[in-house]
Design a protein that fits this description.
265 residues, alpha/beta, seven-stranded parallel beta sheet, 9 helices, 46% helix, binds NADP nicotinamide-adenine-dinucleotide phosphate
Length: 265
Amino acid sequence: MIVLTSIAGRSVIVTGASKGIGKGIARVFASQGAKVLIVARDLAQAEAAAAEIRASIGGGEGVVSAVAADVSTAEDSARMARTALERHGGIDIVCCNAGIFPAARLGEMSVADWDQVLDINLKGTFLAVNACLAGLKERGRGRIIVTSSITGPITGYPGWSHYAASKAGQLGFVRTAAIELAAHNITVNAVLPGNILTEGVAALGPEYIARMTSAIPQRRLGSVEDVAYAALFLASDEAAFISGQTIVVDGGQVLPESHMALDDL
Ligand code: NAP
């Protein structure tokens, strides 16, 4: 039974796809037959991710390839878009996923710390979208999917005030971009992951993971595929009438009104 119309052949850009959630999105979209451009600053890591995905789906370089670009600069974002146009002949889907999450508490956070997080997470979202706009409009339909977070839009966490501001800011961008691009049949939505078991989260150590797991009703961290399939749905033809919206992917993490709600499970 076909549940969603195939996205085979669609041109997809995934920023921040050399590892973590972005690599998961790239893998899931490529496994559905899409042509995926993997974007990250470190070219060797991006190419390694592309090679790994090609091996797992049995595809060639026309299906998954990599480019080095820093989405916090307009020049690199433009080169990223040009690369997709050259390699895929157009742009159908843009996943603005690149993000960083260094921790710094207020009082210790420098202006440079703040600027770096906002430049990559928030300005990088605008720059990636901006660079791809002409390509998306030319197709007469398009999908923009932003990886935000529960942190900022819904919750807070000590050490991440700059990160939370960037992730909440992305949603303001999503809502207005959704209105502006509606006439071009381009939808703009966001996925809000909770704690997802990426290499970066794994590096926070077993104690962090155990404590975080205990705060999630489903008693597990999410997988990168959990987020990728939400993005895939938003990229589908069937999601055409959904724009400016969010999907929380967190195993119920934001639901308990206090830790006591989980004690008796
Ligand atoms: P990750 O494993 O650290 O991967 C981050 C990716 O972004 C890498 O490919 C990195 O490659 C790339 N990147 C970073 N800065 C970039 C830049 N300026 N330009 C282009 N690429 C850049 O991160 P993740 O945990 O998968 O997180 C991905 C997204 O999900 C982020 O937006 C994050 O805020 C969000 N998120 C994650 C979680 C979680 O639990 N992991 C939860 C909620 C939201 P280079 O360093 O080579 O550039």
